[in-house]
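Quick one:
INPUT:
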């Protein structure tokens, strides 16, 4: 006899409530939640923490030995100006550059000893080549790719050019005119489009960072909590508890209740972690101003908007629902928890593929408007990642976003039907290896 809708809903709610309360009371869930909150807030405040640790350190001193090179410019003064120059395109209230102190010295060996002791960050020694150009030797414990090394290398190039121009008789005021950047504008080929994507490095970094962060948040939720649902199904099947529960609820009711219960608990944990992390990110400037002084501020990060957050929330719920029901259906085919990763591997690979394409499109390795990216952004398995990336980059219209959401929502009942058939046949299958034949037999079972 087919159960009534009221009885079906009652059983689903009962199973979901049991899953939610039982797993929410475990020490593992509580400890994991606390750990994730600490990690999330720590990552959000990473720039402030790094500045606090580095505050008052003596490792930001650079010593310069001019020797007999007789440069045409004041090397210590010019080096100090270049190293402490603001980052182009970044607002002055968000500058986090290190305050380098450049000092002149004459004793190379003593200065090298101070570098070894950590009292000095680096020692720069000048000399002349046979052609008369300045040459530089940097003594440091940092690697060639470190930030300080690269800054000094760039500054040395600028000083060498200034020295050449000065020796050639070009006045400093004319030197500045020579290196003044030209007017450069990127225009869209579409006359109706006002811009052609981000116009500055800051805009590009902001849009990429926001798209990348939202994509990785969604990816982590689907992988982590989807497997959480799968292991929950396998655990009950392995302990034979499922056979008892099936006497009071149908396989569909049991699967739906488990997905809703475990998924609801997962979403609650995600929100608990996300709220303090987002608050720490938004109020990062105020926290930094309280510790270091300055003008406080509080605002959403550049590139983040309310419509983007709304679409992220919708994609988050729909994407998780799609993968969670399929994870539950696939996990019902195995009898041991050790086999869960094997049976859900295809779903994980699909999810990873969507995430990778979204990351490549966000960084420009794949053109964001390429046919591949556009088509995949409408396929339900990939749309949560790719449509967020396209929206963050400003290449998806509201109509395209609405179509992708509608297709994703429409595909969930199809996935639920497939998962229900797998679950109905799989919950009572024991001792069989998870093979394509097992999957096919479960789908054909009536």
């Amino acid at each position: 006899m087919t159960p009534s809708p009221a009885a079906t809903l009652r059983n689903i709610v009962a199973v979901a409530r049991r899953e939610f309360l039982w797993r929410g009371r475990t020490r593992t869930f509580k400890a994991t939640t606390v750990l994730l909150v600490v990690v999330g807030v720590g990552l959000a405040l990473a720039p402030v923490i790094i500045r606090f640790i580095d505050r008052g350190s003596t490792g930001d001193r650079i010593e310069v030995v001019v020797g007999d090179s007789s440069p045409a410019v004041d090397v210590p003064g010019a080096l100090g100006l270049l190293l402490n120059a603001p980052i182009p395109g970044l607002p002055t209230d968000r500058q986090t550059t290190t305050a380098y102190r450049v000092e002149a010295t004459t004793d190379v060996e003593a200065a090298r000893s101070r570098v070894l002791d950590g009292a000095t960050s680096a020692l720069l020694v000048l000399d002349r080549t046979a052609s008369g150009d300045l040459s530089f030797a940097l003594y440091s414990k940092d690697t060639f790719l470190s930030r300080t090394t690269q800054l000094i290398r760039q500054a040395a190039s600028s000083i060498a050019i200034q020295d050449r121009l000065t020796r050639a008789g070009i006045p400093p005021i004319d030197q500045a005119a020579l290196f003044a950047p030209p007017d450069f504008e990127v225009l869209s080929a579409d006359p109706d489009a006002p811009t052609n994507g981000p116009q500055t490095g800051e805009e590009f970094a902001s849009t990429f960072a926001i798209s990348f962060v939202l994509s990785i948040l969604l990816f982590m939720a689907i992988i982590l909590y989807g497997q959480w649902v799968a292991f929950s199904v396998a655990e009950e099947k392995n302990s034979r508890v499922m056979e008892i529960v099936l006497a009071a609820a149908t396989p569909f009711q049991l699967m739906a209740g488990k997905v809703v219960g475990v998924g609801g608990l997962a979403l609650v944990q995600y929100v608990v972690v996300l709220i303090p992390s987002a608050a720490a990110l938004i109020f990062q400037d105020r926290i930094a101003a309280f510790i270091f002084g300055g003008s406080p501020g509080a605002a959403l990060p550049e590139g983040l908007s309310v419509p983007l957050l709304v679409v992220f929330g919708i994609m988050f719920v729909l994407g998780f629902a799609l993968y969670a029901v399929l994870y539950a259906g696939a996990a019902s085919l195995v009898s041991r928890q050790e086999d869960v990763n094997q049976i859900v591997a295809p779903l994980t690979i699909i999810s990873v593929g969507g995430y990778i394409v979204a990351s490549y499109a966000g960084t420009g390795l794949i053109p964001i408007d390429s046919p591949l990216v556009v088509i995949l952004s409408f396929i339900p398995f990939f749309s949560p990642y790719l449509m967020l990336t396209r929206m963050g980059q400003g290449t998806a219209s509201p109509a395209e976003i609405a179509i992708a959401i509608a297709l994703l929502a429409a595909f969930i009942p199809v996935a639920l039907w497939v998962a229900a058939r797998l679950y109905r046949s799989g919950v009572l299958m024991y001792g069989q290896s998870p093979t394509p034949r097992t999957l096919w037999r479960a789908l054909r079972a009536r």
